[in-house]
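Now for a specimen:

…
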Amino acid sequence: MIADDDEKWLAAATAAVKQNAFYMQRAIDSNNLKDALKFSAQMLGELRTSKLSPHKYYELYIRASDELRSLEMFFRDETGRGCSIAELYELVQHAGNILPRLYLLCTIGSVYIKSKDVTANDILKDLVEMCRAVQHPLRGLFLRSYLAQVTRDKLPSIGSEVEGDTETHMDALEFVLQNFTEMNKLWVRMQHQGPTREKEKREKERNELRDLVGKNLHILGQLEGVDLVVYRDTVLPRILEQVVNCKDELAQCYLMDCIIQVFPDDFHLQTLDVLLGACPQLQPSVDIKTVLSGLMERLSNYAASSVEALPNFLQVDAFSKLNHAIGKVVEAQVDLPASASVTLYLFLLKFTLHVHSDRLDYVDQVLGSCVSQLSATGKLCDDKASKQIVAFLSAPLEKFNDVVTILKLTNYPRVMEYLDHDTNKAMAIIIIQSILKNDTRIATADEVDAWFELIKGLIKDFDGLADNDEIDEEDFQEEQNSVARLVHFLYNDDPEEMSKIIFRIRKHILTGGPKRLPLTIPPLVFSALKLIRRMRGGDENPFGDDTSTPQKILQLLTETVEVLSDVSASELALRLYLQCAQAANDCELETVAYEFFTKAYLLYEEEISDSKAQVTALRLIIGTLQRMRVFNVENRDILTHKATGYSAKLLKKPDQCRAVYECAHLYWAEEGENLKDGERVVLCLKRAQKIADAVQKMANASRGASSTGFVSLYVELLNKYLYFLEKGNPQVTGETIQSLAEIIRSETKKAEPGAGTYITSTLRYMEFQRQQEDGGMSEKYLKIKMEW
């Protein structure tokens, strides 16, 4: 309803302005001064209304002020035709109402100044004083805005049309400051006009009008006569006096921001004490973080864009002043939210990183100040504050691109302690991503400790949280995989220091709990194995102690992998035991290698019960044992016999068959004649063939003569025979293979397409070898009759 009334009143006032403007223009065209003044006064009389809202009043003001431009040109033309400008200045003062009179006075006053018939200072003083007659906040504000607008290009300053001496420049400065002061008072007074229930509405309306007041500061910033001395001694104190004394939240916040944005950066730098001294005097409800962050951001950009300015920052000790000011503000505003205080320190940190990037002590000091502030709040529950802390901690990472540098900041992990569990993990991921992106190497044991302190949110649970709490499994896997990747970035070329790093990593990783250990122990083990192989071939104890030998590290790995057995990760533990056994083999540590195999066998017997898992584990055991060269005959026979026994006990016959013929490789190694036992190879293959016969008989009995699903077992066996034939096993002869070939031939007609392809490929290979002309190999294959 009120909005409709506003539109009606605005429409009526606009129509009256248009009508009077039309008659005014007609009088101007006929050079009728009297009628031009009459109709212009009537037009301006519409601005006396109190019915319009500030927004609608602004529309009316714009229309009326646009019409006054033609009147200003008319006054200028009249003076050119011999009319006295002084008489015109007196004549307009006979208007009946004060508001139209002052608008006309400002219009003719601008022409009067430009004519230079009188000093600009006299006219400016007269105008700014007479405008005091209008004390209605809205009407007075727009009147003074018009005064600033028409005199803006006529102020005495260097390079302007009305250039004067230094004293004249100060008069122009005084005029703008006085107009600003009066406008600010009117603007603030608007807040107290009307009932309390409409307070928010008035604040919104005032916010829409703030640029009218700020226009004066823009004019000040563009005056040529305002140098650093004038700004420091006159302009800034006068403005700050008005800002502090008005005690209005909206005005203080806006005007402080205007000061920062309008005046040059070097002015701010040289008057930092004065500007910062006003901040604690502002109203507690003022958004001080916006003010100070704007100042620090501008100074940071100034430092980044001008290398020559950096010495000035050091000269005025800008960092200490800003740090002290923020502390005072935080202390004065006890109700300041945690997010606001963190934002202040964030911008101070960015300022420090831009200006004093070589001063880690400054960076650490800012972190420490933030810790002191957060100590009163405890862990942050506010999402906004947590996000600000993440941005706060990310700033040094983005600047230095080196986590090793971050590790030198003692207060960095202290800030992270105030993050909740989820945000702490997110920050740890950011740190890890920085290491991966920049390929950062962490090369000492102390740095490893410091690094794990930073990412402890990923390594272990916080107090009050358990591993069985609801978590997203995919996210959890990704987090732990990130930690696993980072283990490989903890590296030192010195074996002694690397050994210390391994021990430190283990200390931290073992605190992770049953869900994390299967993901984080493997990279530790492989990192240690890499170190062991680097140490291979050196002295038994190159460091003069017993903590860094390959044997000692392998002992450490024994204890580490055992932990996986306790957290239901037996299959993984078995794989790692076998990896460790290979490392012990490379170091020629027979006893240690035998111990690892013993532990792997125990896990296979006691913990692995799933048939598929048993098949996989047994293949790994056989493959690893086949590569071992460190064992004496007795130990090798024991381990081989065990593996063969496991093969015969698998649940499914086809798996038994394949495992048994794989065991044949345990009796035939390429290196060393003492590791070749042709008879046992053939024994394994014949045993596997018997199992295959049993499989085929059971299949035929249960499914009929068309069952061919296990023919491939015979083909696999044939390939094994051919392998050992080529390797020179004297016990594998053409006659031995021929009997197996007969069985395969009898089953070929019933073979499935897949099996038939396998058979065809094998036969093609055999034929290829028969046709070779190298002599030795072809003779072996010629003994096998191929009547297929």
Summary: The longest helix spans residues 2-29.
